[in-house]
């Protein structure tokens, strides 16, 4: 049975309609009611019992999930949730000698296949033929040496390619191993992702990987990182409403289920969660639409597996050499046989001399030199974290004239990093060293920018810095402002960074947390109780949280002074709570009347200071940074501007030097970047 619905139809479904459509694919041909009650009551003798009458056009997928009795038939009809057609793994007992033997065979089988593929090369075949002839003529030493050399060469190449294949199997790690599924009215946690079927109701939460393509039926601030599929690092906000697909784009609809003329692009399918993508925030539920190779991720994996393996320039040259030697040897044998016949030599003697000369003409050392050289190249590439699947591909790199590469996650770390900061109390900017989320590995601290334009024209005491010092510590006069800046960025944040470097949340928020740690500002969230949160939206372009200190004392002086602010002789925030806001600089500055001074107090924010802050923001944006502004105050009407932070996705170590080296060698490098509309 073929899956009957298109992606355009699935996007246009309302959640209830999706439940009915997918329930109709059940093993019984569509069960629009509770299977348990139906089967039990139909076996009774009272047909007038209302419980035996199935409600029309109703489905239990949203309340009870799939029935376990239908799982096997659904898997048989629409396939298992496994890539490359793999069957569902069955548990094996490793203590069983037969199981250990089978496990060993699974490892040896790819190596044996790779070894056999090496023996099919034309030059290798010629050497095997020469070894056989040498053995036939009684030259066992020559035959043994040739066979030993070929075995070593083929085995080295086979093992190296097998190791590369195992490294490339990391693609399957993007598919989750377990998930939470609702079946028979109960939630099953840690269910193997390979066991889910079409129509299963999957529960998603922050940190989960989506196990299959799903139609979302309800979401709560759900954001998904789809970089593994689209290459775009920005999280995508997901919704559960239906989409009306138009020629000019996709809009949210109100239940229209008309078939769209063309399926919407992946980036427009905002009510679909794709296999292998990561939930970075929020929670939701979804009904499985496609499993295995029918998913978008599975289609990519299938296409990669069907790529035609073309020969490299080196392999083509070696094949040409093999053919040339074969023709020359054949011609030599025929010539020697003719000369021997004309001179009256014996037939066996003439053939022996001719074959010996032909075997001597074949360079048995050539495959060894080529394989060893390529293997050394592969090992050298491996030291730089580059995986080479086939040995001849190393030589192909030397023939490249143009390299086109995606930027995010390829040339860059795919780890957002806070790089530049600006506080209105000082006329210069600050820089943050260190790259990536691992603070122990990369280190990092705040330094004053070396370009301090307009420094001489500033007469404020706040602009005075310690002479001869560039690094900012907690003993410097700038630290109070930076503590307020990074403290706001940490409190108005839903990400988390563990001590072992494991991160969870949106990349931008993780960059702010790691930046705070590098700046020496402890995460203040454990000392605050969050009372209210207004999440970020594309319309408001900001996020707001209201927090109260748990012990009554704030994490920095600026917050404490803000909580004590009075208006008309009364404290604005009697309970000591403070609003913390982050968002687009233009939006934040428009609501701020004061700013943070060097000592942490609040002073009037002038129009010239607003203009200077916007100028710094545009300067950071011009350098490719993602800019966020921070503010805090006892109420949303009395916010103090804390400053702005510029975040970037830094290049990988050695990328810039590599590009420069490629340019010097005549290779053109073109960077391809995909920009999402969301």
UniProtKB/TrEMBL annotation:
Top-level taxonomic group: Eukaryota
Predominant location: membrane
Record field: compositional bias (Polar residues): 54-66
Subcellular location, record wording: Membrane
Domain P-type ATPase A intervals: 174-303
GO terms assigned for molecular function: ATP binding; ATP hydrolysis activity
Membrane-spanning ranges: 143-159, 325-344, 350-379
UniProt xrefs under InterPro entries: ATPase_P-typ_cyto_dom_N, ATPase_P-typ_P_site, ATPase_P-typ_TM_dom_sf, ATPase_P-typ_transduc_dom_A_sf, ATPase_P-type_domA, HAD_sf, P_typ_ATPase
Keyword field: Membrane, Transmembrane, Transmembrane helix
Keyword Zinc-finger listed: no
Pfam family, one: E1-E2_ATPase
Region called Disordered, residue ranges: 39-66
Residues spanning the signal sequence: none
Example of a GO cellular component annotation carried by this entry: membrane
Protein name as it appears in the record: P-type ATPase A domain-containing protein
Species of provenance: Thalassiosira oceanica (Marine diatom)
